[in-house]
Amino acid sequence: MEAAEYLRKSRMEEGMDTEEVLSKHRAALASYASAHDIHIVDTYYEVRSGESLYARPEMLRLLEDVEAGKYEAVLVMDLDRLSRGRMKDQGIILDAFREAGTLIITPEKTYDLNDEIDDELAEFKTFMSRREYKIINKRLRRGLQQSINSGCYVANAPYGYRKTSIDRKPTLEIYEPEAKFVRMIFDLYLQGYGCVAIARELTLLGSRPHRSDRWNRSSIAHIIRNPTFTGKVVWNQKSHIKKGAKGNPKHITIYNPREKWTITDGLHPAIIDQETYDKAQEIMAGRYHPSPNDGTIKSPLAGLVRCAKCGIHMQRFYAESQGKVPYLMCRTTGCCASAKFEYVEAAILELLRQRLQDLTLRRESAAKADTAPLEAKLAAARKELAAANSQKARLYELLELQEYDLPTFRERMAIVRDKITGIESLIGATEHRLRELRAVDTATQAKRLAEILDAYEDSDAPHRNAVLKSVIDVIWYTKAKKTKPMDFELEIVYKPN
C-alpha cells in the first residue's frame, strides 16, 4: 500500500522543539508502516496552527493530492492532527478523504470513511477534539489575563528592556545600553526636537531599533506614546480580524480606542517617570492638528477609504513641507505609507470607468429582476442550516453524556444528515439562481455609474462623497514603505445591487 504521512505538532506539545517532535512522530509512523507493509512515498510537514484550514498550506496541498487519488492512505499520529478547528474545516477534510476513498491510518486505528461506523467515529473524534481545542484556548486566555492583571509582561521586550522573571512571573528588566537612548528620546522631545530630528540624532550615535537598521519618525513616536516605559503593562491595544471569505482570508489588525485598553501597574521598573511621559503626550497632542470638524463633508473620499493593513479609515491631511499639498494618510503610526490625495482620487475614478466599460459590454441582457423573494428564501435556508448543524452537534454531546445508545444515535443522526443535505442543496440552487439574476442587472448599474462620472467634475465635495457612497461600500488601500508615489493598490467593494 502506497501512502503519505502528515506531521503536525499539537497544542499539547507547545514549548517543545518542533523538529524534535516531528522527528519522533516520523519515526513512530515509519515503524508502524514497516510492520504493516505500508510504503510511505510523501511527507507533509506542517508547522502552522491547527485553527484555520486556509492558514495551513501543507494540509491544502495534501487535500489536493488526496482528491486527485494520489494515495491509498494517509498516516497521522491521531485524527486531531488533521483538524481541530472550525466544524466547517473538519467537514471539508473528512469529505475529501471520504470521496476519494483514501484511508486515514493512525497507530491506534484505521479509518475507512466509506464505512458507516468508521465515518461516525471519525466525526465524533474530530468533534471532541474541537471542543478540547476551544477549552484549551479559553484557559490560555483566562491565564493570560490573570498574568497581565498581576503585572506580568508576556509580550516581547520593548526597546530599553530585556525579558526576565520575578518569582517565576514573566516581567522586564532595564537594559541600560538601550534605556539611555529612551531617556534621550524623551529629553530631546521635551526640548522641542521633532521625531524626525530625534531619529536622525540616534542613528548618527549608532543606535538601532529592534526591527530596523535605522530610526524613523514612526519608531520614535511609538516610543514616546508607549506607557510601558513608565512601569505600566498595556494590553488589548489591537484586535485581529479576517477580511474576506473563502480561499485565503486576509488578516488585518484593528487598533482599539484607548478606553478599551487594559492598563495595569507592572512588576518591571520604569525608565521614564510619569510626569515626563505626561508632558510628552501633551506636546504630541498639540503638534497634531486634524482638520476642524464642523459637521460638513470636506473630502469626496470621507468615510470610504480604509487601510488594508490596520482597517481604520484613511484621513486627508495637508503637508506643510509640500506647500499644503493634500495627502491621504493612515492614522495608525508607522502603518501604511501615504499617497497624494489627487493620485488616489484619480485612481478611484479610473477604476469606476473600467467597471463602467465592463458593464457596458454586458448590458444587452439588462432586464431588472426582483431578487427580494429569493434573498428572503436564502436567508431562511441559511438560518435553518445553522439550526440543523447545532442539532447535529447536540447529538454528539448527548452521545457523549450517554443519553443515547449507539443505535438510537445513528438513527437520529441519519435524519439530521438528510435534513442538512437537503438544505445545502436548496441553498446551492438558490445562490445559483441569484447569481444568474444579478448578472443581468448590468444596464441599471452602467447607467448609474455613467451619471456619477458625468456629474463628478461639476460637483462639490459633499455631493461627490454622496454619489460615491451610493455605489461603493468600502475602498481598501495598500501602499508599502519606500515605494513610488503611484505604487499603491486599491480594492473597491461595491454595494449590493
How is this structure best described in words?
With 497 residues, this protein is of the alpha/beta class. It folds into 4 domains: 2-147, Rossmann fold, CATH 3.40.50; 161-287, Hect, E3 ligase catalytic domain fold, CATH 3.90.1750.20; 305-363 and 445-494, no CATH class; 370-439. Helix content is 47%, strand content 17%. The protein has helices at 18-35, 57-67, 87-100, 116-149, 176-190, 195-204, 217-225, 274-287, 341-361, 372-400, 406-439, 442-456, 461-471; strands at 2-8, 39-46, 73-75, 103-105, 110-111, 161-166, 169-174, 232-235, 238-243, 250-255, 262-265, 305-307, 314-319, 325-330, 339-340, 472-478, 489-494. A 5-stranded mixed β-sheet has the order 2-1-3-4-5, with helices on both faces. A hairpin with a 5-residue loop joins β13 and β14 (325-330). α9 packs antiparallel against α12 and α12 (442-456) runs antiparallel to α13. It is globular. The two termini are 54 Å apart. Mean pLDDT is 80; it is low at 243-249 and 288-295.
